[in-house]
Amino acid sequence: MADNQPRDDHAKQLKQAISRTKQLRGWVSSDPGRSDDFVDALNEATGLRLLSRLWAEAAPEATEAVGAADKLVASRGPVGPYTPLVDAGRYFTALTHVATVQSGMNLPEHAGMTIGAAFAWKDQLTRDGLADELLPRTAVWALLARARGALAVGDLAQANAQADAALNRAREAEFSGAETLILLEALRTDADARFAVDLTDQSIDLLHEAVARWQEWTRADLEQLPRMAKAHLERLVGPVVPLRRDLADRLAWAGRWDEALTVREELSTLLHRTAARRGEQGRVDLAVARGDQTWTLADAGRAQEALRAGADAQQALQALFKAEKPVGSHLPTQALVAPALARAELAAGHPDRALAALDQFANRLQAHQSVPVGAAARAVALLVRAQVQDALADGGAAATSRAQADQLVGDVRAREVERAHHSAQDGLVLARGRSRGMVLPSQLPTPHWEVPDSAASLAPSGARLAGLEQVSDEEAMRRIDEVRDQEARERAVAELRQATERAERERQDAERRSEREAAAQATREQTEREAAAQEQSQQEEDARMEAEALLIQREHEHAEQDRLAAERAEAERQEAERAEAERAEAERREAERREAERGEAERPTTPAVSPLDALRERAAEARRRGDKALIESSHEDLIGALEAPAQADPQRHGRELVSALEHLSEAQGWWGGRAAGKRAKQLQKQWQL
Q1: Residue 146, CA atoms < 13 Å, CB-side half-sphere
Q2: Three-state secondary structure along 404-463?
Q3: pTM for this structure?
Q4: pLDDT, average across residues 13-25
Q5: Could you give phi then psi for residue 424, rounded to 5 degrees?
Q6: What mean pLDDT comes out for the span 606-611?
Q7: What is the DSSP string of 274-328?
């Protein structure tokens, strides 16, 4: 294995988990006793997919695991102090996986609501111990989902508290291998939470630590890059893209331009090395990274370097456009890159080129209106266009662009109601931040927060029982007995209420199942509508492309018809010229003949010469003079005179006739002399000359 490609144990584990899930799915329908194994298999497969950042692929199994775990918990009786903690762990894990999928698919508010419901459900258990049933990665994912959800709704104190708890738990777990990704995500989430409260230096330090841990984790594998499987490469490179992007953004925010540009160049170099192997996502990441580099260089006043980076970004965009299916699908990427190209040209003193780059994007946006491009990205393009139009002294157009941009920025601000601490940001900063998924710093004073206690942080059992190690054995046994007595009393009370609670629980379960089924049905209907809309869009695009192809074909046909008509006209012109030349030559020959007759009449009488000899002499004279017209006329006359004698005596006159035909063919040229040449060959063959 080492001689061929780097070992990928994670991919092997995921393949085995998927196979195990499929096997148990078939068994559990006939043997409900395997339900707990089935839920465990679903959770394991989903967790491994999440480590590979396969959000869309993990979603169906995560949802299925929630339903299967819910049925398993319900089969044990009402949720409460006697719910088996192992079943509770399965259900909490499944909900955590759903929240992690939502967070990974850029739905942090939904993730916050899902994980909030999971913690609320956990509180119904009325006793500790759930953390013992959770894998460390599940506990960290749960805390990260709470932190991301709080950050999305502007609860910055809660976001920082949960992010700190997640990072502490991740460091305590000492993750290795593929699970190192969880530590990286915890560091990034904590860095985002710090930046949101305007603690920029702390955020930068956390991101530096994350990049260093990533380098340590991937160093050995990246040395074998040419032999690495695509999925393995994506799992290694994908996580560092947002880490280095955010690090460069925050260094630039702090005015540390050289450091920011160094990070940008490192990221661009890595993505350039891996783009071809990673496919479409690799080319998208490279184009966006080059665009970010161009923007930062322009901001730093390094115009010529910005132009070079912009050329690389444009080249990466062209590679995307060549492979677009359907055409226009990469408009969102172009929306991020085009304004950066325009700013580079503007910084270099080329506002006309800057406007051309923006026009190219605007034209594609108009041509492919079915492709969704966010309001924030369109606002950035319009704001940069206004800057370019100002440089071109086109104040009216600049005012129009700013008015359109202000309307879009207003839409973005309207969605910031729950995040009012961001609403005071400059329009371009806010729009560009939202278009790139950036966290923006608060305009309010830094809030106070405290790390949640160990129970709220889903601490492992060792951390929760640390207090027992500080008391005597007798005291520890006394406390344990008290807990057992309390549990016995609670059990007695629970048994008295069990009948009514079970009925209530069944009713609630029925309602929840009905709600879940309704939600699932709504999701299916929404998916079907989206699929239908996408299919219609594809059909419209196919029809457009077919119409364009038909138009091109018709243009080619018209061009071919025009060419043929031109060739016919040219042939007719040449034929007319040839006919005119032949008429003129005939007139000339007639004049020469008459002149010759007058000369003959005027010359003194000489010994008679036979007409055939005279024709021979005239033909020989024409050949000596090299006059093609005269050669043609004299040989035509000679051939006419030789026809009868040659037919009568081929051996005597045949060779002379064939020679005259050959001279005539040579004088008439390749095209006009074909008939004479052909007849010469026929007679030569016929008479065996």
Answers
A1: 26
A2: HHHHHHHHHHHCCHHHHHHCCCCHHHHHHHHHCCCCCCCCCCCCCCCCCCCCCCCCCHHH
A3: 0.65
A4: 81
A5: -85, 0
A6: 60
A7: HHHHHTHHHHHHHHHHHHHHHHHHHHTT-HHHHHHHHHHHHHHHHHHHHT-SSTT
